[in-house]
Amino acid sequence: MQVLSARATSSADAIRTVFDFFSKYREGVDDKDVRADLTFGNPHEMPLPDMVRAIKARMDPQRPDWFAYKTSEEEPREVIAKALGQETGLPFESDDIAMTPGAFGAIALAFSLLLDPGDECIIPLPGWFCYATTLRARNAVPVQVPLAEDTFDLDIGPIEAAISRRTRLVVVNTPHNPTGVIYSRERLAELAAMLSRKSAELGRPIFILSDEPYRRIRFDGAAFTSPAAVYPHTLIDYSYGKILLSPGLRLGYLAICPTMPEPDRTTLREACATSQVAGGWCFPDAPLQYAVRDLESMGIDMDELQRKRDRMHGALTQWGYQMTKPAGTFYLWGRAPKGDAAGFARDLAGHGVFVMPGTLFDRPTDFRISLTGTFEMIEASLPAFQAAAPA
Questions:
Q1: Are residues 287 and 377 in the same domain?
Q2: Is 14's pLDDT higher than 90?
Q3: Rounded to two decimals, what is the model's pTM?
Q4: pLDDT confidence of 226, banded at 50, 70, 90?
Q5: Locate the Aminotransferase class I/classII large domain: which residues (predicted)?
Q6: Which tens digits make up the pLDDT trace of 368-390?
Q7: Is residue 259 part of a domain?
Q8: Mean pLDDT of 18-31
Q9: What is the pLDDT of residue 2?
């Protein structure tokens, strides 16, 4: 007898590799023998003290309705609209902002707003491993399109070739997880021109979902352009969990591009709250929304993170690894020795060092390192990387 819906089964199948890895990757290794866990973007040091103080302050109720039902509160939306406008040069208003439980919640909201069953959404390969499962949960169809080989830049030709009558949305993740590539304004403008032309052919807009949770995590003074700056039919998702290195802090937002044609902009504005309620009251907890004014200006030490990047990237390239030097995010992406990421990850695990094999990104030749580990963890891991280096 069938218990699960076809939708639930399809969604589970799309994420099964990740769950299998998460449940087993430290199997057989005693905790005392772990040198470095460089898999997920989790913190390994105590949280930012200012962040903790801000959240504690907002836990203290100031009026009877402090913990009443909350949708998207006006104050954080005003703060975000102003800050996002300063970053992008676009005239965001508070009504363009929907408060969500992290960027994940914003992505789910965008999919719910734009996609009917059978609609197609183009996602990058390699790319974040939760796009497909979130799409399948809505009976939408993920269409993987490879990024440019070696550079991992947007490859406009293959994206255009993948567009069909059912295409409704293209996900652009910049800075990109797992490679750390940031797309140039010129390349984004090229994508925008193509999507404008294809939208006219289809008779309805193809939207961009600009997945930007790492927007403020950039190295070497790298510039950043949001697709919203060049393409009006863009939605932006963002998470405070990355810049604060607190992924369990489920606070983010979905923003509607203010240059979007007014009828479409108004329709999306009005539909956000009802879609969030229908999705299971998908709003951040009240104290987190109250804390946005303080959290907006906080962030991890980027100089320290860049030193970690430079130390790890320098050591691995010295030993013959083919690595992509990230311009953003807190990840390092490279080619596994012999192109066998799963075998490479097992070899490192035998030395108490854990990395994420590219199989989780449908790229079995490569691997990802999270730079959120401590300096001590990074130094402790290097002998294992050196021992496993390409011949």
A1: no
A2: yes
A3: 0.97
A4: very high
A5: 38-379
A6: 999 999 999 999 999 999 999 99
A7: yes
A8: 93
A9: 86
Which of 261, 295, 329 is at the close of a domain?
Answer: 295
Within a domain: residue 171? yes
Residue 291 and residue 305 in one domain: no
Residue 1 belongs to some domain of the structure: no
Residues 229 and 377 in one domain: no
In a domain, 193, yes or no: yes
Place of tokens 């990802």: 368
* 261, 183: one domain: yes
Question: Which pLDDT does position 183 carry in this prediction?
Answer: 98
CA distance linking residue 101 with residue 281, whole number of Å: 10
Tell me the percentage of the chain whose pLDDT exceeds 70: 100
Which pLDDT score, from 0 to 100, does residue 307 have?
98
For residue 90, give its domain range. Answer: 65-295
84 and 136 belong to one structural domain = yes
- pLDDT in the model for residue 391: 77
* Domain harbouring 217, CATH code: 3.40.640.10
pLDDT of residue 181: 98
Please write down the HEC assignment for all residues of the chain: CCCCCHHHHHHHHHHHHHHHHHHHCCCCCCHHHCCEECCCCCCCCCCCHHHHHHHHHHHCCCCCCCCCCCCCCHHHHHHHHHHHHHHHCCCCCHHHEEEECHHHHHHHHHHHHHCCCCCEEEEEECCCCCHHHHHHCCCCEEEEEECCCCCCCCCHHHHHHHCCCCEEEEEEECCCCCCCCCCCHHHHHHHHHHHHHHHHHHCCCCEEEEECCCCCCECCCCCCCCHHHCCCCEEEEEEHHHHCCCCCCCCEEEEECCCCCHHHHHHHHHHHHHHHHHCCCCCCCHHHHHCHHHHCCCCCCHHHHHHHHHHHHHHHHHCCCCEECCCECCEEEEECHHHCHHHHHHHHHCCCEECEEHHHHCCCCEEEEECCCCHHHHHHHHHHHHHCCCC
Report whether pLDDT(60) > 80: yes
Q: What's the CA gap between 59 and 28, in Å, rounded?
A: 41
- For residue 71, the model assigns a pLDDT of 98
